[in-house]
Amino acid sequence: MLIRVSRRELLLGAAAATPLLAQLKPTPLQTIGPFYPIDRPLDQDADLTVIKGKPGRAKGQILYVMGRVFDVKGNPVRGARIEIWQANAAGRYRHPGDTNPAPLDPNFEGYAVLTSDAEGRYQFKTIKPAPYPAGPDFTRTPHIHFDVSGRHTRIITQMYFPGEPQNEKDRIFMETQNRDILIAKMLPPNKDVEPDSKLALWDIVLNFG
Ligand SMILES: [Fe+2]
């Protein structure tokens, strides 16, 4: 199901896609980090909150993350391959290298592969990731990892959340130029989704599409 957000909501979310600008700013790059999945789950669909064949549901704040992929001229990028991976609601990755003692969630996939549609749109359902310890005196603020391949440009980056107290203490985030571009716009749920869910709008701009 593709959730339709109103034109007004889209404009609110489209920091990158102001039509008056001749040139959009490319989405800044971010480290791939240590937890890119080694064993990709069989279930790679756009709903990370349920695993096929299991009755349960992932713990945490339900989020619908959606947006569009553009080139810097504002043309939608269709058929972009979008891989995402993230920590669960306790701040733990499904990765053997994650030494965080926080529990795994047996119902959380943590990974998906998506393809943008003819208008460059993508969408997935997930839960909000928690912050997690990343070394002495270093906590990663909540984020979702993205690996986006268009026809001519591939980027690895991370999406962040507005108003997080840890944002300003996260070195990876704070050392990024134009980091505001990496912050999603949050909206309350519309009639298509669970009343306690949230919408996160985030556009991605690839240099050459
Ligand atoms: Fe991470």
What does this structure look like?
This protein has 209 residues and is mostly beta strands. It has a single domain, classed as Aromatic compound dioxygenase (Protocatechuate 3,4-Dioxygenase, subunit A, Sandwich), CATH 2.60.130. The protein is built from two helices and eleven strands, in the order αββββββββαβββ. It has helices at 7-13, 171-174; strands at 62-71, 81-85, 111-115, 121-127, 132-133, 139-140, 143-149, 154-160, 185-187, 198-201, 204-206. The strands form three sheets. Strands 1, 4, 9, 10 and 11 form a five-stranded mixed β-sheet that branches. A hairpin with a 5-residue loop joins strand 5 (132-133) and strand 6 (139-140). The longest helix has 7 residues, at 7-13. The chain is globular, with a radius of gyration of 16 Å. The model has no long low-confidence stretch (mean pLDDT 92). Fe (ii) ion binds next to strand 7.
Keywords:
5-stranded mixed β-sheet, 5% helix, mainly beta, binds fe (ii) ion, 11 strands, 26% strand, single chain, 209 residues, 4-stranded antiparallel β-sheet, Protocatechuate 3,4-Dioxygenase, subunit A
Topology (elements, then pairings):
Elements: H1 7-13, E1 62-71, E2 81-85, E3 111-115, E4 121-127, E5 132-133, E6 139-140, E7 143-149, E8 154-160, H2 171-174, E9 185-187, E10 198-201, E11 204-206
Parallel strand pairs: 1-10, 1-11
Antiparallel strand pairs: 1-4, 2-3, 2-7, 5-6, 7-8, 9-10
The chain binds fe (ii) ion (FE2).
- Write down how many β-strands occur, each being a DSSP E stretch of 2 or more residues: 11
* CATH homologous superfamily classification: Aromatic compound dioxygenase
Strand content: 25-35%
The best one-word shape is globular
Can you give the mean pLDDT?
92
Query: Gyration radius, to the nearest Å?
Result: 16 Å
Let me know the largest β-sheet.
5 strands, mixed
